[in-house]
Specification:
Elements lengths: L28 E2 L2 E2 L5 E5 L4 H5 L9 E8 L4 H13 L5 E7 L14 E2 L2 E2 L8 H18 L5 E4 L9 H17 L2 E5 L1 E3 L3 H8 L6 E5 L2 H13 L14 E7 L16 E3 L2
Parallel strand pairs: 3-4, 3-8, 4-5, 8-9, 10-13
Antiparallel strand pairs: 1-2, 6-7, 9-12, 11-12
Length: 270
């Protein structure tokens, strides 16, 4: 959006983006550029997360890093995911090829307990040890890959629709933020499943957020790629939201008691 008034010129630096002027603030825009994208890396947990939750910025970040692609119980899936990475249209994308802890249904999402490693695995039949090992592996690898970046864009603390590995990637990034001092940004997806966890963070979320149009054509292209290799993990008829929002996550988030505009949510059902 480019306006005639001098005050609107700040949006001219982002051609093709209709940035909502009511939904942006310092330090999201500075000197005509989107601060969030400056020297930035997108860190996504699994192949296809980059298409579902980050389509608006996927072709604008410096690098895209996918973390967990291998599933011991589904070697066919691992293989197909690797083929998708090789054929991926985003060329600055790579994958750490970390193995999944496969504890997806091990969390009590009605009353989730946050731990250093992500969330408490409390249901029988799921390994908390493997989940903790996964945290240490992620930390070791991300420590090397995130060094030198100014902005890390990643999963939100409640794991979008409620995936414990999304939460874990966020928690590792958060631990490294204290060491490296980079900025963290996360998006506004939530679900009926993750809502109780979201509520634990709601009162500390920033009022300043960036609202961007999703890239529906890129999202669809990627959905078709993952479907071609039979490893699309989301609704087969998924339609992208028109917009998605990003908020910054300071090193020490504060409880905000004053009246304020709340970070809007894109709610999906699971
Ligand atoms: Zn995922």
């Amino acid at each position: 959006m480019v306006g005639d008034e001098p005050g609107n010129q700040i949006y001219a630096a982002s051609p093709g983006w209709d940035i909502d002027p009511d939904a942006v603030g310092f330090p999201i825009l500075k000197n005509g550029s989107v601060v969030m994208l400056d020297n930035s890396i997108l860190v996504a947990a699994h192949p296809d997360d980059e298409a579902l939750w980050f389509s608006s910025i996927l072709d604008s970040v410096k690098e895209v890093l996918i973390c967990i692609s291998h599933v011991a119980s589904r070697p066919d899936w691992t293989e197909q995911r690797c083929k998708c990475i090789v054929s991926h249209p985003i060329k600055n994308l790579s994958c750490l090829a970390i193995q999944s802890s496969e504890a997806f249904d091990g969390v009590n999402w009605n009353s989730p307990i946050i731990t250093k490693y992500g969330l408490l695995i409390s249901k029988p039949g799921f390994s908390d040890d493997r989940y903790k090992q996964s945290y240490e592996q992620l930390k070791k690898r991300l420590e090397q890959r995130l060094l030198g970046y100014t902005n890390i864009i990643t999963h939100n603390p409640w794991g979008e629709y409620g995936h414990l590995e999304h939460v874990q990637v966020y928690r590792v990034t958060k631990e490294l933020q204290a060491k490296f001092g980079f900025n963290i940004w996360f998006s506004n997806y939530c679900s009926n499943r993750s809502y109780p966890l979201y509520l634990k963070y709601a009162s500390s979320l920033d009022s300043d957020f960036l609202s961007l149009p999703t890239n529906k054509s890129l999202g669809l292209e990627l959905m078709n790629l993952y479907k071609k290799y039979d490893c699309w993990t989301w609704h087969t008829d998924y339609e992208w939201f028109d917009r998605e929002c990003f908020a910054s996550d300071p090193i020490c988030p504060k409880l905000r008691l004053q009246p304020r505009t709340h970070f809007p949510l894109n709610i999906v059902n699971i």
